[in-house]
Every structure is written in structure tokens, then in C-alpha cells.
Design brief:
single chain; UDP-N-acetylmuramoyl-L-alanine:D-glutamate ligase; 10 helices; about 20% strand; ATP-binding
């Protein structure tokens, strides 16, 4: 399964995949009435699936691993997109998540919990993941865990993946995130992508503390490095993102002004952009620029659609040294083109 290492390959695991149903509201939602939708769409989803779709849209070499029956609609939809899949069959259908989007771009999410995975299914997923990781540059563990899954499963997976030589990125929240960071340095991923709410959970702060107090934000990020995380990509929605590395580099980026259509999957596209830039050999500031450019492009699209590189404008992203609001100068070099698969940083 593994074969020789493929220098640009990414493997994603989505343990709790979904069909993402986006419902376009004609006005802000009012309870108790009848709403005649302005439109709707359905996309294959789950955070790891979204990352894989964005990478594939850039021509990336990506394998998406998930539990689903061969006849499940999510498998049909992903194969129609041309994604390479590795699935473990399960009896229950993949869950459906609903996103309500009003004309101002405000989103309300209604997520089903998903079906519990048996011990045998988790073991099979872990084995397939390990086999594909041995030939990959990056492995992405992304999203929530299904009901009854041990909260430390991601921590266990990180440990088992160490011998593959692949770099590991994790994007999760709540109990799985806390368990991952409590499991010791041997379970720490190379890259962690929290948002402000998730960083606050880890640091025992409120989200307002993180957003309004740069010193609190910086201290919270440093606690992640102290636990063994090499790179922290902190996404801040419309305020952009922060990248911190364990060797002391700290950058922030502001997105361009856009008309927000849907924020569903924007963080996943940010992670995909970061990985594309990393695969292209870009330095940290340019990895951050590409991440923010991808997130902004995603938010400008309807539903959980993912952007192609042609829709991503890295030159419109302002990158500065330090935290948001810093008066430091931007990087002295001009921004590179947004990386596409097979095109290195110039």
C-alpha cells in the first residue's frame, strides 16, 4: 500500500464524515414560521474531506480515508470529483449536517452526531492510514470523532504514525483536542490548526480573552509549543490568521475585503492552502499568506464549495511580523504566486 515516498502526497483521515447540506435563507431566520428557501446545495463534507477536496482542486496528490459503505452517497460524490479514496465499510449511512446561511453571510450549523465506530473499524482505519502515510509528506487528522470513540484516539494515531516519517497536522476541538495536548510530547503533531475558541479551550480562557488581549493570545500559543507542537496556525475568521513556530517565528495576516457567502469549510481550505505552500517549499510568511488567501476565497463561495488556485489572490493578503495589530513591516519580498500542485515557491 505504501510503496516509495511520494514527495507531494497528502493523506487525510475523516473519522466522522458528512453530507453537508447548505440552505440559503431569504432573510434572517425567524423561529416558528415557514421559510421558503432561496436555494440549497449538498456537498461531501467533514473537515478532512474538505481539506482533500481543496487540495485536489489544486491538482494535489491526496488520498482521503473515511468510514463509509461503497454505496454511500458521499463515496459516490467524492468519486465523481475524482478523489482517490480509501474506505472502511460501515453499516450506517454517513450523517447529514445542515448549514443555514442568511443574506448577510451569517451561518447557523446543525450537525448530526454520526454513527459510532466499532473497535474493528477503528483498527482498520488506523492500519490503512499507517500504510498510506508511509508514502506521504503530510497526514491530516481532522474533525470531530464519532460517538463512543475514545477521546484520545487522535493522540494514539499520532504516536503510531511517528515511524512513517510523514508530518502530521491535526484540526479538532473540545475533548479530542484537550486529550491530544494532554497526552505528552510524543503525541504532539507537527502542525495544529486551532481557531480562537479552540485556543481558548486549551488555555482555560474565554474567546474574548484570546481575541482582545495579544499577550494572552501569545501565551496560549506558547503553551502549545511547550507541549511539543512545532507549528501553530491560528485561524481568526474575518481577522485573518497567526502563524507561530517553535523556533520563534511569529507572523500575522489580514485577509482581503470580500463579500462573505458562507464560512463553512473556510478553515479547512486555510489548512489546505498552508499545506500547498509547504509542499511548494514556501517560507513561513508565505505559507501563512496562502492559508489566509485560501480561507478568504472559500468564504466568498456558496455552501462548502472549495476554491481553485485561480480564485485565490495571495497578493491581497497583508502579512506582518508579530501578532495582529503589530506595527512591524511586512516581509521584504514580494508575495509569491499561490502554489498549485507541482509548482514550487518562486
Amino acid at each position: 500500500m505504501s510503496g516509495p515516498r511520494r514527495p507531494d502526497r497528502v493523506v487525510t483521515l475523516t473519522a466522522n464524515p458528512s453530507l453537508d447540506r447548505t440552505l440559503d435563507l431569504p432573510a434572517p431566520l425567524a423561529q416558528g414560521g415557514i421559510v421558503r428557501l432561496a436555494g440549497s446545495s449538498t456537498e461531501p463534507g467533514g473537515k478532512g474531506v474538505n481539506v482533500a477536496r481543496a487540495l485536489a482542486a489544486a491538482g494535489g496528490d491526496v488520498v482521503s480515508i473515511l468510514p463509509a459503505a461503497a454505496s454511500d452517497p458521499i463515496v459516490t460524490a467524492l468519486r465523481a470529483l475524482g478523489l482517490e479514496l480509501a474506505t472502511v465499510p460501515v453499516h450506517s449511512p454517513v450523517r447529514t449536517n445542515y448549514t443555514l446561511v442568511d443574506p448577510a453571510g451569517t451561518t447557523t450549523k446543525l450537525n448530526e452526531p454520526g454513527a459510532a465506530l466499532s473497535d474493528a473499524t477503528r483498527t482498520a482505519l488506523s492500519g490503512i492510514l499507517h500504510g498510506h502515510a508511509a508514502a506521504a509528506r503530510w497526514v491530516v487528522l481532522s474533525g470531530s470523532l464519532p460517538p463512543s470513540t475514545p477521546v484520545d484516539w487522535y493522540a494514539d494515531l499520532v504516536r503510531t504514525l511517528r515511524d512513517t516519517g510523514a508530518r502530521i497536522a491535526v484540526d479538532t476541538s473540545e475533548a479530542p483536542l484537550l486529550a491530544l495536548l494532554s497526552a505528552g510530547r510524543d503525541a504532539a503533531p507537527h502542525l495544529l490548526k486551532p481557531n480562537a475558541e479552540e485556543l481558548a479551550q486549551v488555555a482555560g480562557l474565554t474567546e474574548d480573552d484570546v481575541l482582545r488581549d495579544p499577550a494572552a493570545m501569545l501565551e496560549a500559543v506558547r503553551t502549545l509549543h511547550a507541549r511539543g507542537v512545532a507549528e501553530v496556525l491560528l485561524t481568526l475568521g474575518g481577522d485573518g490568521a497567526v502563524l507561530s513556530t517553535a523556533d520563534g517565528e511569529l507572523w500575522s495576516a489580514r485577509p482581503p475585503e470580500i463579500a462573505v457567502r458562507s464560512t463553512v469549510g473556510a478553515g479547512d481550505c486555510s489548512l489546505a492552502g498552508y499545506l500547498l505552500a509547504s509542499l511548494a517549499g514556501a517560507p513561513p510568511a508565505e505559507r501563512l499568506r496562502t492559508a489566509v488567501a485560501y480561507g478568504a476565497a472559500s468564504a466568498s463561495l456558496p455552501g462548502s464549495a472549495v476554491p481553485t488556485p485561480a480564485r485565490v489572490d495571495g497578493s491581497a493578503v497583508r502579512v506582518t511580523a508579530g501578532l495582529p495589530g503589530s506595527t512591524s513591516s511586512p516581509p521584504p519580498t514580494a508575495p509569491n504566486p499561490v502554489p498549485a500542485a507541482g509548482r514550487g515557491a518562486l
